Amino acid sequence: MTIAVFPGSFDPVTRGHLDLIRRASRLVDHLIVAVMVNTNKRPLFTMAEKEALVRHEIADLKNVEVKAATGLTVDFMAQEHATVLIRGLRNEQDFGYERDIAWMNQSLNDSIETVCLLARPPYAYFSSSLIKEVAKMGADVSEYVPDAVAAELNRRLQDSAHE
C-alpha cells in the first residue's frame, strides 16, 4: 500500500490546494493531508480550524484523511509509514524551493520520494498569503477558496478589524 503525505499550512485552504489533493488521491492508496505549522508565518486560523476546513472540503474522498502534524515532515511520514511526499509547483520559484527541500528530506530519510504536481493554470498565480492580503482589503476571494472558507475568512478578518 502506498501512503503519501501532502503537507501544508493551509491557512486557509485554497481551491488550488484542493485540486492537488484530489489529483494526488488518485495516485496513491492512502493520502494524508498534514496540516502543519509554518514557522515563518503568523497563522490566521488555529490548527483545529484548518483541519476542520480541509476535512469539510474533502469529505467525499474515501482514501484521504486530515491530520495535524508538528515537527519535521520526514518524522511525521515515518510515524505514518508514508514513503511519498506530495508537493505542488506553481512556478519556477516553487521548483527551486521544493527541490532544496526534497534534497534535505532525502538526506534525512532516503526512503522518501517527493512527487511534484504542477498547479493547473487557474490556480498557479495565487497563494494563501496573497488571498489573505486581498481579503483584508475587502476583495471577494470566493474565486480562490471554497465558499465555506471564504465565509470563515471574511468573518475572521471582520472580527480582527473590530478588535
Automatic annotation (TrEMBL):
Record's catalysed reaction(s): (R)-4'-phosphopantetheine + ATP + H(+) = 3'-dephospho-CoA + diphosphate
Pathway annotation: Cofactor biosynthesis; coenzyme A biosynthesis; CoA from (R)-pantothenate: step 4/5
CDD domains found in the cross-reference section: PPAT (cd02163)
Cell location: Cytoplasm
Residues the UniProt record annotates as site (Transition state stabilizer): H17
Co-factor requirement: Mg(2+)
Binding positions for ATP per the UniProt entry: S9, F10, H17, G88, L89, R90, E98, Y123, A124, Y125, F126, S127, S128, S129
Stored PANTHER family: PHOSPHOPANTETHEINE ADENYLYLTRANSFERASE
Family classification: Belongs to the bacterial CoaD family.
Protein name: Phosphopantetheine adenylyltransferase
Organism per entry: Lactiplantibacillus songbeiensis
Lineage start: Bacteria, Bacillati, Bacillota, Bacilli, Lactobacillales
Gene name tied to this protein: coaD
